[in-house]
Design a protein that fits this description.
5-stranded mixed beta sheet
Length: 469
């Protein structure tokens, strides 16, 4: 099956499988600039959802967003000796601009400690100005010789947090707080449970006193560093004069932290959940939650374009996804889905759920939605591993009888084989998991994340009447 889709099986060559999935799922592509990548809409939509979730977690803990320059004076980089030695091989340097040679070379941001703490030294005067808790969403440049899409590229997107504190204890607490946020996000949103711990002296961040990291085990039995949080001590404060007047009236240097995660998390998601069919995107991160598969006997049964635009994709929070109509003939799948009506099967993009419908289901709008809360074979009541769902080719019900009333799709945490959760307002006549049900294809499909600390890996796909709570 993998070879038919142009995807190398994992068992043959894991690295080749990974590259094939990234390209076939239209997550990213190679750039004309060596070592850089182009993040395509599907991949960028996943990053936007990661960004939104993390941004909320940061703001819940008192952090604010700011933005600092892309270009940093070389003299700033050179002030912290350990820092410059660690980054010197990776620096991209601008020496000319406006047709002239610059008086001082400018470094394209590899990380922003130097420029940020130089600004903090202007803003902080007293202990009353502390703590400073800022985060930046940005791109960075680190010149790499060997690159892999999302995992290691010369330019990548990330967030970098930088804080200043009055005491070492506060800075250490901040460092560990962020490490816990990264772990929670990777467990509950990505379904990629990491190990957390202290990095060795040889592996710590250049200029840090201590570096903590989250590392997750991939399917090739190799660990992926998925996030880092650094206790910087007073190293950068001393280089940039970041001092404050304490409550006792003494001038003291501030204590700093820095921390970050990047688009590498998308690569980790692929290697954690992907299979020989393609990517598998957890529902809390998927830009599109449901894809509807049009089933036509011929061109004369095709739905009107306006109807197709309403039913072919439903994104997060019920956002409709327009139909780009790439289908080329009877039985072809929806826009960009990679599905075919004749063969069925999951698309390489890894949309969490799918369904199908033909002319009778779109005029007037109705449809057949397949719910899968089971294992790879769709066994009823089995665990839904990290948002992985089994797509079932929906068959048209030619018989009579009533139709189950309108449902929407939600995701909740739950036990491995206990089946879907139920509460007041659930339809008592609703069939069990893995059973196709009739719903209007124009229905609003919503996602709900894992709650109460439950891991995404034990979530269950559940359906509920729109009239319910």
């Amino acid at each position: 099956m993998a070879e038919d889709r142009g995807i190398t099986p994992q068992s043959e060559d894991f690295a080749a499988w990974y590259n094939d999935v990234v390209l076939k799922a239209e997550l990213a592509d190679y750039s004309p600039v060596r070592g850089c990548m182009v993040i395509r809409p599907w991949g960028y939509g996943i990053w936007e959802n990661m960004q939104s979730a993390l941004d909320g977690l940061f703001k819940e803990t008192g952090h604010e967003n700011a933005y600092f320059p892309l270009l940093i004076p070389m003299s700033f980089i050179e002030r912290e000796k350990e820092h410059v030695e660690g980054f010197k091989p990776e620096l991209a340097v601008v020496t000319h601009a406006g047709g002239k040679e610059l008086e001082e070379a400018l470094v394209i941001r590899p990380t922003s400690e130097t420029v940020i703490y130089s600004m903090y030294s202007k803003w902080v005067q007293s202990y009353r100005d502390l703590p400073v808790l800022l985060n930046q969403w940005a791109n960075v440049m680190r010149w790499e010789l060997r690159t892999r899409l999302f995992l290691r590229t010369s330019e990548f997107l990330w967030q970098e947090g930088h804080t200043a504190h009055a005491t070492e204890e506060e800075a250490e607490e901040e460092t560990r707080l962020i490490l816990g946020i990264y772990r929670r996000f990777q467990e509950e949103w990505i379904g990629m449970p990491p190990l957390t711990g202290l990095k060795s002296e040889s592996e710590k961040f250049a200029g840090a006193v201590r570096s903590y990291a989250t590392e997750a085990l991939m399917k090739d039995n190799k660990a992926l560093q998925a996030g880092t949080s650094h206790m910087l001590g007073q190293n950068f404060s001393k280089q940039f004069g970041l001092t404050f007047q304490s409550e006792e009236g003494k001038e003291e240097f501030a204590w700093n932290t820095s921390w970050g995660v990047s688009t590498r998390l998308i690569g980790g998601m692929i290697m954690t959940h992907g299979d020989d069919v393609g990517a598998v995107v957890p529902p809390r991160l998927a830009p599109v939650q449901v894809v509807i598969l049009p089933i036509f006997r011929g061109d004369d049964e095709r739905a009107p374009p306006q109807a197709r635009g309403q039913v072919l994709g439903v994104g997060a929070k019920g956002r409709a996804v327009p139909d780009r109509d790439r289908s080329q003939g009877p039985g072809q799948g929806p826009a960009g889905s990679g599905e075919t009506g004749a063969g069925g099967g999951r698309a390489p993009e890894g949309v969490p759920a799918g369904g199908g419908g033909g002319r009778r289901d779109t005029c007037p709008p109705r449809g057949v939605a397949a719910r899968a809360a089971g294992d790879r074979q769709g066994a009823p009541g089995g665990p839904l591993a990290s948002g992985r769902v089994v797509r079932r080719r929906a068959e048209r019900d030619h018989g009579g009888g009533g139709r189950i009333r309108l449902h929407r799709v939600e995701w909740r945490s739950g036990g491995g084989g206990a089946g879907p959760e139920r509460d007041e307002g659930d339809d008592p006549g609703h069939p069990g998991p893995g059973v196709p049900v009739r719903v209007p294809t124009g229905a609003v499909h919503q996602r709900r994340g894992v709650e109460d600390g439950g891991r995404l890996g034990t979530g269950l796909l559940r359906q509920r009447p729109l009239g319910g709570a």
